[in-house]
Amino acid sequence: MKENLSPKVKALYEAVLELIAENVDVRDVKVSDITSRAGIGKGTAYEYFSNKEELIGSALLYHIDQICSHVMSDIGRMEDFSEIIHYLLLCMDREISKRDCLIQFIQMVTDNGPISQLLRDKIKSDSQICMPQELIDQVLQTGIRQGKINSRLPFPYMRLAVMSKILMYAFYIAMNEGRETCDRQQMHQLLCEGLLRELG
User: Fold this and answer.
1) ∠ CA 68-129-8 to the nearest 5 degrees?
2) Which of 15, 49, 114, 130 is positioned for an S-S bond with 68, CB 3.0–4.6 A?
3) What pLDDT digit, counting tens, does each position of 146-195 carry?
């Protein structure tokens, strides 16, 4: 995704992310809420985006792209499948603890609202956006190279197995933060062992 954002666009994106961090449902915010938070005039937003949905969708995609690109760079230097899974779960812990946009992003991609449709269209049309699926594919390819994953399994099934475990872990942490009955490190280990059994 494009790195060279104008300062005003970056301020708008940061305003959206701040609102999300405060647990505001961005579907309910107005453009003026975002521009006020960004410290720019409302009309400026319309110089870059045609509507609120495009602004919010672009901010979410930019943020997800930044996270995924960073994580992909890190796991590209790792050689062990288990180490990579543990690292992905630690990243999930960090993002969830920041009250990040991940949960809202997942909800918006899967609902039928206007932001959801815009997100899906942008993901399909912009091949430069780094998405979680690319991370998972890189993880799986490492596991196959190491012989820890059965290469005869259909790749879409392998991807689904990893993604479902990671997503359910994200929801578990988000919904039970501070009340988990299982230590996170222990949960990481159990998830990793479960994936190795399922895919090995």
Assistant:
1) 95
2) 130
3) 899 999 999 999 999 998 998 888 878 777 766 777 788 888 999 999 99
Q: Give the separation between CA 191 and CA 81, rounded to whole angstroms.
A: 13
Place of tokens 């110089």: 47
How many whole angstroms separate alpha carbon 147 and alpha carbon 145?
Answer: 5
Separation between Cα atoms, residue 56 and residue 62, nearest integer Å: 10
> Tokens representing 66?
């930044």
Residue 131, Ramachandran bin (φ over 0: left; ψ between -120 and 50: alpha; else beta): beta
- Which residue type occupies 19? L
Q: Of 12, 54, 48, give the one whose Cα is nearest residue 32.
A: 12
- Span between the terminal Cα atoms of the chain, in Å: 34
Residue 105 one-letter amino acid = F
Q: How far apart are CA 157 and CA 155, in angstroms?
A: 5
| Amino acid at position 121, single letter | D
How many residues are present in the chain?
200
Q: Which residue type sits at 97?
A: S
Token pair for 126: 């912009």
Q: Are 43 and 86 in contact (CB under 8 A)?
A: no
198 has a pLDDT exceeding 80: yes
C-alpha–C-alpha distance, residues 160 and 165, integer Å: 8
